[in-house]
Design brief:
With 592 residues, the protein is an alpha+beta fold. The protein has three domains: 99 residues, Beta Barrel (OB fold (Dihydrolipoamide Acetyltransferase, E2P)), CATH 2.40.50.140; 220 residues, 2-Layer Sandwich (BirA Bifunctional Protein, domain 2); 127 residues, GAD-like domain (Gyrase A, domain 2), CATH 3.30.1360. It contains 17 helices and 24 strands. Helix 4 packs across helix 16 and helix 10 crosses helix 12. The radius of gyration is 30 Å and the shape is globular. The chain starts with 17 loop residues before the first strand and ends in a 13-residue tail after the last helix.
Length: 592
């Protein structure tokens, strides 16, 4: 390469040296005859000065420069004049005095600026992603992503893990989303599936005696998209043999605590990470991915108002429901309009209404207190730990509605009351998930995590009597209100795995076709094993304070699963379809 070093590497120790630099024109400024060029590459920016008196040829070229031209600079490093240093730049004490400026490639007028963080429509950004990635914030995100992945590789390698690649062309697996299918040319009518995760392969690696496996794995799911979902994403896939749940959690906690404090400006809020059961998370926080950066707990008050003359409360309990509430510190200052907005939020999450009360300096405002029985109000204040100036909000409904509505209220109150610190990562484990749940549409049993999760040993008899009560040896990693990883101790016995498939309603033919290889492998000395799969995109986006994982994926799809830059998905030539023995069936017109 012709260049001497990267732009962002020039320092005072290079003063007096002649350098060749190559990069992009970040900005151009004409100051009283001198032209100043901020020259940028991945390493950073260095100031270049072009003097018309001493270097007229270079100055003539510099006059033609525009933002994002690619140029080559020959010149000498000098100290900046006293008072003109820029402490925000690593190169801020020096500048390069150019004697030659060469345009390697000009640039068309930009669709949006690179040198400033202007608001740009995401469709335009994705269409010109190669320009978007030059912008400082996006460039920093790319570097952070690289550092996170390198840290993971080094950490796990030092702990005896082997990085092993697994196939991209595989068989379909039931993991809660549609598979992306790939037709086989050599086997007409047959299809590969792109892996939703390497689940079966990593378990088979344990059967193979690998003992400790990891992979920075590409995964594919054909599902409806939102901010933290993409059709293709990256996860850390990790599996260990001869372990119990706490062994897996310890590796995960150590990895991400150290990674957070090494690569971000955030601190880990709780050490060791809390272990919260799924039941406690749902009851106390209204979510299985609770945000623990603030302490707003949901409290059950059903026993206090179970026989209350206020029928909204007592009637809900008679119907098998609950009454639960939450305290908003200093919430008595909320206006009636703000309380009405909170009521609408509760209704949007299934509640029929929202009961509220506050008292300030002896004055009580409430939608329900006058209807309570003797002493019930005082007991409610005590249970909710409410004091003068607080607001209490209560929901009387089914358990599921109370959880959903109060969980939404908890998150909204934290925002309105400005209780959320932005410099912490509140990591936690959620454990003891139910193994089964009911499909709302069909009423049939389905799995909450995935079908390869081991039930609690003590709950195995319930598979034959009351499977809904079976707990799974499953666990999630959550942080700041987001699920960042999911894992479990796996089934390693063919008889238990077969019984779980049967309870899910899989036919013997489907079990054999999709999972026969797994069941056979389990009969050839499969060790106990377990693992976890943190989402790389979600972790990096949280460390980078980004709301969407698209901001930390180099070339993401949009919300419609389209690549606007490459034009994918697209139609293909008829002869390609013929080779694959595939025929396109046009969708029927809407309403036909």
């Amino acid at each position: 390469m012709k260049r001497s070093m990267m732009c962002g590497e020039v320092r005072t120790e290079h003063i007096g040296q002649r350098l060749v630099l190559q990069g992009w024109v970040h900005t151009v400024r004409d100051h009283g005859g001198l032209i100043f060029v901020d020259l940028r590459d991945r390493a950073g920016i260095v100031q270049v000065v072009v003097n018309p008196t001493t270097q007229p040829d270079a100055f003539h070229v510099a006059e033609t420069l525009r933002d994002e031209f690619v140029v080559e600079i020959h010149g000498s490093v000098e100290r900046r004049p006293a008072g003109s240093e820029n402490p925000r730049l690593g190169t801020g004490d020096v500048e390069v005095h150019a004697d030659t400026v060469t345009v390697l490639n000009p640039c068309l007028p930009l669709p949006f600026p690179v040198a400033e963080e202007a608001q740009v429509d995401e469709r335009v950004r994705l269409q010109y992603r190669y320009i978007d990635l030059r912008r400082p914030r996006m460039a920093r995100n790319l570097v952070l992503r690289h550092k996170v992945i390198k840290y993971i590789r080094d950490f796990l390698s030092d702990r005896g893990f082997l990085e092993i690649e697994t196939p991209i062309l595989a068989n379909p697996t039931p993991e809660g989303a549609r598979d992306y299918l790939v037709p086989s040319r050599l086997h007409p009518g047959s299809f590969y599936a792109l892996p939703q995760s390497p689940q079966q392969f990593k378990q088979l690696s344990m059967v193979a005696g690998v003992d400790r496996y990891f992979q920075i794995a590409r995964c594919f799911r054909d599902e409806d998209l939102r901010a933290n979902r993409q059709p293709e994403f990256t996860q850390l896939d990790l599996e260990m043999s001869f372990v119990e749940q706490e062994d897996v959690l310890e590796v995960c906690e150590s990895l991400f605590s150290n990674l957070t404090e090494s690569l971000s400006n955030k601190r880990v809020l709780n050490k060791p990470w809390p272990r919260i059961t799924w039941q406690e998370a749902m009851n106390r926080y209204g979510s299985d991915k609770p945000d623990l950066r603030y302490d707003l707990s949901i409290v059950d008050v059903s026993d206090i108002v179970g026989r209350s003359p206020f029928q909204v409360f007592s009637g809900a309990i008679e119907r098998g429901g609950v009454v639960r509430g939450i305290r908003a510190p200093d919430g008595a200052a909320f206006t009636r309009r703000q309380i009405d907005e909170l009521t609408e939020l509760a209704k949007a999450n299934g509640a029929k209404g929202l009961a509220w009360a506050s008292h300030t300096a002896g004055e009580v405002r409430s939608s329900f207190v006058r209807n309570l029985g003797p002493g019930e109000a005082e007991k409610l204040w005590s249970r909710l730990e409410a004091s003068d100036g607080d607001l209490v909000l209560l929901v009387a409904d089914t358990v599921d509605v109370a959880r959903a509505s109060l969980g939404a209220l908890r998150r909204e109150l934290a925002k309105r009351l400005e209780l959320i610190p932005d410099d912490v990562m509140a990591w936690a484990f959620v454990i003891e998930f139910p193994w089964f749940e009911r499909d709302e549409a069909t009423g049939r049993l389905t799995f909450m995590h995935h079908p390869f999760t081991m039930p609690f040993d003590a709950d195995l008899p319930l598979l034959d009597t009351d499977p809904v009560r079976v707990r799974a040896k499953a666990y999630d990693v959550v942080a700041n209100g987001e699920e960042l990883a999911s894992g479990s101790i796996r089934v390693h016995r063919a008889d238990i795995q077969s019984r779980l498939f049967e309870l899910l309603g899989y036919s013997p033919e489907r079990i054999q076709a999709n999972f026969g290889h797994m069941l056979k492998a389990f009969q050839y000395g499969a060790p106990p094993h377990g693992g976890i799969a943190p989402g790389i995109d979600r972790v990096v986006s949280m460390l980078a304070d980004e709301d969407s994982i698209r901001e930390v994926i180099p070339f993401p799809k949009n919300q419609s699963a389209q690549d606007l830059m490459m034009g994918a998905p697209t139609t293909v030539q008829a002869d390609q379809l013929e080779d694959l023995h595939v025929r396109v069936v046009e969708p029927a017109p809407v309403g036909s």
